[in-house]
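To the structural biology subgroup,

Please find below the input and predicted structure for Farnesyl diphosphate synthase, which we are adding to the shared reference set this quarter. The sequence is reproduced verbatim from the submission form. If anyone notices a discrepancy with their own records, reply to this email rather than editing the shared folder directly, so we keep one authoritative version.
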Amino acid sequence: MNYHQKFDAYRNLVEEWLKERITVPELPEKTLFEAMRYSLTAGGKRLRPVLSLAVCDMLGGDREAVMPFACAVELIHTYSLIHDDLPCMDNDDYRRGKPTNHKVFGEAMALLAGDALLNTACEIMLEAVLADEKDALRKAAAARLIMEAAGASGMIAGQVIDMESEQTAVSYDQLCRMHSLKTGALIRASILSAALICGADERTTQALERYGKLIGLAFQIKDDLLDVEGDAAVLGKSTGSDVRNHKSTFVTLLGTDKAKELLKSTVEEAVKALEGLQNTDFLIHTAAYIAERKK
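Predicted structure (tokenized):
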């Protein structure tokens, strides 16, 4: 099985799990669940849960133990996209090639759908903790790690910096901090939560943490490049939004050529971080995929 086939196999497992979990009941509030499923099944890459499952396999762990936490991260990521697209944030009309949630269901329902996805993520993780007396402590620690990455010292903090930096020139260090929190925190959490559940030793955990930090940075650099050079039809969203919103990016700070050089060196460092670990082929290829992706 080649890399792309394996990625698709992981992604299919995630898709099936999510579809079974997030259903639309015949209740007066069914519109809420329709809004949740609309964004959740809109065709995302599922990079974060795929990374969780890949780390689990790398460590010889139990996929069933990791899957609820992997999918919880995807629910959190989806909620953040719904909120990020709202008029009070980035005011985007398209996401993954479809009208954004608020364009279909209205702003209030989109806000509530995002809230519900976040709360459902917590429910899923707590159910997994309560159902496993043997490894409950590890799973509780993984849940805490994920929620911290999503919260006021993680993703939300990065979003605040991003919002307050519009039409303001920021330093390179500030830009790196912003994206380490806004984009990188959940990517690291998807990797480290799986490592924690699977009982990784300290050396392995430190290597995976560095790898996660670097691919999170690479992911954002590539996003900034795609906003300038990408094809909107392939991306499924409009390009040039960073320029329109007067945002500082790796491209605006460094220029396109230097941003590409930084992307290349960051991916190389990510691969180097895995040296000495076993069964890392998929993670190595994922670093390259992040740099080469078209959307």
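Summary notes: The chain has one domain: 3-292. The chain is about 75% helix and 0% strand.

Regards,
Lab coordination
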